[in-house]
Amino acid sequence: MNKLIALWSLCAVLVSVSHAQQKITPAKPGVTYGKTIDKTGAISVKTLENTFKKDAIFSGKIQGEVVEVCTKKGCFMTLKREGDQEPIMVRFTDYAYFVPADIIGKTVVVEGKAKVKETTVEWQKHYAEDKGQSAAEIAKKMTKPKKDISVVADGVLVVN
Predict the structure, then answer these.
(1) pLDDT values of the chain reduced to their tens digit, one per residue, 160 residues
(2) Is 74 left (phi over 0), alpha (psi -120 to 50) or beta?
(3) If 0-12 CB within 10 Å is exposed, 13-18 middle and 19+ buried, where does residue 158 land?
(4) Does 1 fall in a domain?
(5) Is residue 30 part of a domain?
(6) Could you tell me which Pfam families the record lists for this protein (predicted)?
């Protein structure tokens, strides 16, 4: 009987997770994902980059333009940086929420912790697959670890 209850519970969880992306509210100004936040005190991506010249970790709000989203379920997004620099990876605290694909091109404010970290080749490949890149692109680009800015966000607010 306990096995039957456990199996039923597992099925219920899997069904709710599989429908998670379908229930995500479309990205419109004022919509929040995760913790409810406002844009007061948000710094720009450029200011964040300059912060790392003197501090190892930044806690607070960052405003930027979304350029990519995980195509599988919206489990991460990236924020645009100036020039040819790699975008900033934004993941969500404990994968407690996801963002919709229509958030690309929107200006958002994220609140959380940012740091410069090294991303292994394995994780680079994983993210590239989730972005929908081909195996050939992945094999050509992902050959060594890289340092980049990573954010773990408690909440996301769509500004415009």
Answers:
(1) 565 555 455 444 444 444 444 478 999 999 999 999 999 999 999 999 999 888 889 999 999 999 999 988 899 999 999 888 889 999 999 999 999 999 999 999 999 999 998 888 888 888 788 777 888 888 877 788 888 899 999 999 999 9
(2) left
(3) buried
(4) no
(5) yes
(6) DUF4920
Q: Distance between CA 30 and CA 14 in Å, rounded?
A: 30
Q: Is residue 120 part of a domain?
A: yes
Residue 138 domain boundaries: 26-158
CA distance 2 to 4: 5
Domain count, the chain: 1
Are 45 and 88 within 8 A, CB to CB? yes
DSSP for 56-104 reads: SEEEEEEEEEEEEE-TTT--EEEE--STTPPPEEEEEGGG-----GGGT
